[in-house]
Structure formats: structure tokens, C-alpha cells
Amino acid sequence: MDLFIILVICLSCLILLSLWNRSYAKGKLPPGPTPLPVIGNILQLNTKNISKSISMLAKDYGPVLTVYFGMKPTVVLHGYEAIKEALIDQGEVFSGRGSFPVAEKITQGFGVIFSNGERWKQIRRFSLMVLRNMGMGKKTIEDRIQEEALCLVEALKKTNASPCDPTFLLGCVPCNVISSIIFQNRFDYRDQKFLTLMKYFNENFETVSSPWIQLYNAFPFLRVLPGSHNVIFKNFALQRSFILEKVKEHQESLDINNPRDFIDYFLIRMEKEKHNKESEFTMDNLVATIWDMFSAGTETTSTTMRYGLLLLLKHPEISAKVREEIDHVVGKNRSVCMQDRSRMPYTDAVVHEIQRYIDLIPIGLPHAVTQDIRFREYLIPKGTTILTDLTSVLYDDKEFPNPEKFDPGHFLDESGNFKRSDYFMAFSAGKRICAGEGLARMELFLILTTILQNFTLKPLVDPKDIDTTPVHKGFGTIPPFYELCFIPV
């Protein structure tokens, strides 16, 4: 036993020495807490709230620090100045996608979110081009969102003002909007395939935000154990089958001179490049990109809306002011449109404050540096994973006084006009900023105003007793379960 303990101590010292030598051989990494052998700094991080742990470490080590998730060093950026300097001022160098093992196991480096290098550049450029062709940022996509929002109103009326969980219905609008772009069709809210697809996205987002997945990402060898990561993998396999079925239908009816949707555009590009062995337009990239677009385009908007309604239940005086502004600017006889937003500063501020306050993706998706880089006084080696503590920007108390309070005044000036802020990084920033930002902003504004134009939100308990504390704050921030009544006005 004594010999075993000696061997463990020696091995631990060798590992620590290796880590130390690696950091100084490749560059002078920023300071940080001393890592333990194998497990790194994981014991100093709260897997239920990584951003809170980072904030505490930043007080000791500054806005640029190194943290070991397992044996891999990760450079963490805390605060607006450090994040802006990296993602915006040196955006190209910080445009790589860092390690995210649970997603890498699913996408294998394909698609638009978790790809790198030339593949990422080509697929992202192509995807943005097709989204614009399909109407993103234009009146055509606005019309689709308005139509889907009215379908939501009809579905909410069928609840007959009875208590209901809004999770599924709020997800229907963004899911059907992205479906119309990818598949050129929407689903009926009672369609069983649609219900199942929505369940998978919701389940995946909640699971990937759990403490277990934070551990999995630090120690990918945990995949051999039973755990919730297997739920994500199972759901992805079923989602992949659904996507492949849709792709097959498109292949059978494809008209290369008349593309109907994203799949058609991609298949046409695949056909054009079929003799190019280096082409990135492959079936693997098509499936992964569709999955990326659905995942990013459905659950994030849905969760934001679900959390937003909970905050409005907690603060009925705020929803009353929004409804008053809707009545004044729009009335009840027509749908709200994006042109109305400039005349609705309070509502615009509420939508921004919901996104700021809920802090949906606290540390963003991991970045990586694409080359060796001197950042401030440090040398960061090529390929190093970079985490951006977006919470530290959205909750900066100099930009947003009393940030722990839900207050639309954070986005209003003294005259009540909407006030923009460079600190609003709800969609991240730089080269890897969310590709669907414009679509998401449009959806959030139109869905929220359409709901409040047609319904009063009634909580089941006294507003002061509503708890808005998230159940998870890992990869994403997950609101607690609640029910409410939609009272027609």
C-alpha cells in the first residue's frame, strides 16, 4: 500500500510538471488557480453555475485567467474590455471553435456551429446566403412569423383560460418558422412527429445545461458510464433519422432550377461539386447544419420566451405598460409589425432586458485561437480553448446599475427613448456571433407583443411568491417549471 501511495504521488508530480512545462514551452499562459493532477480545477468550479465560479476567480487572477477543465488549459475572458478585445478587435484569431466534447460526439466537426477552419467559413457563408434568399431580415420572413404567431394565439385560446404549461406552445412558433425555411412546410401543433421533435430539442437543451454534462465536457472518457449524455445521443440519432427522411423526400422531387428551401439549395450545391473531392457540401455537413439550425433556432428562442413570460408574471406592472404601449401604437385590429418597434421603446427595452436578465448562454460557446497569439502580456498557443464569461458583460453594474434587478430602464434614457448598449452580448459577438440573431430578435419582439395584444397573463400564485431562480445555469440557463392562464382581452 505504501508503495502504491508513493507511485501515485510521483505520477501526480510528473503530471503537474508536464502541465507546467507545456504552458511555458508553448507560451506564457495567463495566471489561474493551481490545477490538481488529472482533474484540474474542477473542484474549484461550481458545475451548477460555472459563470459564478469564474467571477469569483477573476477577483483573484484578473480579467484574463487560465482554468484547467481536466488536464486541458482553458483561457477565460471576464468583463467587457477583455471580451471585446478578443472577439471584436482580434476577431479572426479568436474565431476558432473550442472543445465541446458532447457536441463533437454528435456532429463530428460537421455543420456550422461546431466546425472549424475552411469548412466553417464555407458552410456559414452559404447558410447566411440561403437564409437571406429565404427572406431572413426581410418582409417575407416577418410575414411567416406573424402568421405563426396568430396560430399560437388560436392555440392559446383553446386552453380556455385554464392553467397550462407554456413550454410546448411557445416552442411551436420558432420551430415552425425554421421548418418553413429548411423544409418549406409547417407542422400542425397536433402532429405527432412535430410533438416528438419538439420534445427532443427541449430535452437536449435542458440536459446539456445540467451539471453532469459540464463534467462530461471536462472528462469525455465518462461516455463509457451510464448518464444523461446518452439521452442526448439517443435523441440526436432519432433527429438525424427524421432529417434524413426529409432529405430523401427532397432528393426525389428536386428541381435544380427552382429551389424551394434550404435543403434544395444545399442539394443543388452538392450536385455542382460532386466531382470535387475537397468539397464541404456533403451529406454529413447537410445533416449537421440542419440540426444546428433547428437546435439554435428553436430551443433558445422558446426558452427565452418561456423565461420572459415568467418574469412578466412576477412583474405585472411591466406587462401592463407593454400592453398600454401596444394599444397606443398598434391597437387591436391589426398585427404588430417590425416597423412598430421604433415607436415602442418600452416594449423594445423589455425584450432586451429579458435577454440580459436571463443570461441564456452564460459563458457562450467555446472559442479557440487559430494561431499563436500575444494577448495583453500573455502568449496563448494555437488551438487553446477560450471561454467568454458573457454574464460578466450582461451583469456589469457600471453599464446596468443594480443588474440583479429585472428593470427595462436599463435600456431607456432619461426621456424614455430606447438606449442601445455595446454590452448587450446576448448573441455573443465577433465572427462567431449567432448567425440567426436577426431572426431571433424579430421572433422575440413579434411573439411577445402578439401574446400581450391578445391575452392578460394570470399567475396561479401571488406574483411576490413567484420564484424566477433557474433550475440549471450550465451551458444554458433553464427556467423553473410553472403554469399560467392566458386570459383573452
From TrEMBL:
The keyword Oxidoreductase applies. Heme binds at C434. Residues 1-25 form the signal peptide. It is a peripheral membrane protein. PROSITE patterns: CYTOCHROME_P450 (PS00086). It holds the Pfam family p450. One of its GO terms (molecular function) is iron ion binding. It is an enzyme of class 1 (oxidoreductase). One of its GO terms (biological process) is xenobiotic metabolic process. Its cofactor is heme. It comes from the Eukaryota. It is found in: Endoplasmic reticulum membrane; Microsome membrane. SUPFAM superfamilies: Cytochrome P450 (SSF48264). Keywords: Endoplasmic reticulum, Heme, Iron, Membrane, Metal-binding, Microsome, Monooxygenase, Oxidoreductase, Signal. GO terms for cellular component: endoplasmic reticulum membrane. This is Cytochrome P450. It comes from Macaca nemestrina. The lineage of its organism: Eukaryota, Metazoa, Chordata, Craniata, Vertebrata.
